[in-house]
Design a protein that fits this description.
The chain is α/β, with parallel strands linked by helices and about 425 residues long.
Length: about 425
Amino acid sequence: MDNLKDEIDKGNLGEEFVNNLAYKTYLKYWCYPGPCDEFGDRKEIVDLMILFRDTCLLISVKNYEFNGKYDRYFRNTLEKATSQLYGAERKLYGQRDIFIRHPDRPEERFEKEKHPHIIRLIVNLGEMVRFYPFHTETNTGGYVTVMDKEAFVKLIGELDTIPDLIEYLNSREKLLAGKSAYLLPGPEDDFDVDTANQFFSRDPDADPTIIPRLILSGTEADLLAHYLRNERKFSTQLTDSTASGVYLDLNGGWDGFIAEEKVKQKKAADKFSYFIDKLVENELLRAEPDWAKDMSLDLLSLNRFERRILGKSFLGFVQDNAEKGPDYMARRYQKIGNTAFLFLWLHKSRAIPQYLPRFLEIAAAAHLIHDGYQPSKLLTIGTSGFMQGFYFYYLPEIQFPSAYEQDILTDCKTLGWFTDMKKFEYTESEHPKT
């Protein structure tokens, strides 16, 4: 009985560890710890679920101690976790509607039609494991990513936006799917004879001409460094489809990567990007309009580099205008991909609550008309003084009737807009040069 209690306690500690990391990194709003089938058996579906855009990320956490026997350890961790993920997927994507609960919200239907892209992830918290498979499969052949504790910590510490994380996991899956792939995260001198014998006894009859074999010496963080150094791709050494077997020593790659001056400069430059994270967390997710969540999704769909561009631009815009007088207003319009961003600065005496919604509407529509409706949507972020409060406007659809368009153009003429426009080009490198 005591052993069972110890296992439950360890499991709960493991889930709490992963949940806290996910909350801190990806914002709690999209994280569902231990979601249950609220109107069914009320059993926990999976340890952690993250829902974002079209993706459902299912995470199973195992916290068994490693006793030196790899086959037993993998049965207690990978097989059980894979079974949990398979059961979670079957339940969530079955015929019956499943209702789940977020810690901060009432029950809601799991909208399976909105999340067709499934990522399955096992996080092993056991230590002293000197090799483990990069992935496993569910009963129906669904790919399951496998990581240890250290790997998970460093991964979401570096890829701290959901778009960056998803991009890496998809690239990793593309690299490893269909291969017999193992990671050897420990130092070479710690790979003793018993460990070697257990390693070579796995898949003894595997034919590398049928299932290619890939062995990487190093940690998941070393593999991540390899990916980031290679412009977010894996090198041809790893992606060569003609090779039946690949061994690559990546040891020390992560430590060398984070010590590089250009990486340190990137980290420093990325500080501007966290303005966007905080704006969503502290302002938009607390706003009342229904569209605030959609606007939050659009902002958090930007990767870390794109958030840096936007945050740096907005903060510079505010700094340029914060000391202007009561008759002054300023606008800045820019695009990232197919999304337009409009920044507004108004003296607080002009940000009159009863007139502000109409002013925001005119400004948003005017810039889209002037830009020939090129963007697919527009997000407006406004402020007064040096960020003395924020106001937002969101246009997910941007085509206007001709009569409305004419009214907007008339308003622009009255306001004197688009008579003395200043265009500037802005270049930002992900890795700034000294």
